[in-house]
Amino acid sequence: MVNNGYDRQMAIDAVASGRADLVSFGRLFMANPDLVERLRVNGPLNDLMGPETFYGGGAHGYIDYPTLEDSGAAIALA
Asked: Any one cellular component term from GO for this entry (predicted)?
């Protein structure tokens, strides 16, 4: 298992080359509630807000990131 700074292509390459059996995504999940779908369709990722929003302190930057469907990007990818 590998992690820390991987994007979609880096994850694909790591697994394909045998360097890893799986790749974990921590911060990307925080900004992209539908990360699995975004990676599956190679959709755009939300920008991650600052670390002060990672673990609470209000909804902003914690539970208010838009999904692909909410952002309208899903329509363009369908």
From this structure: cytosol
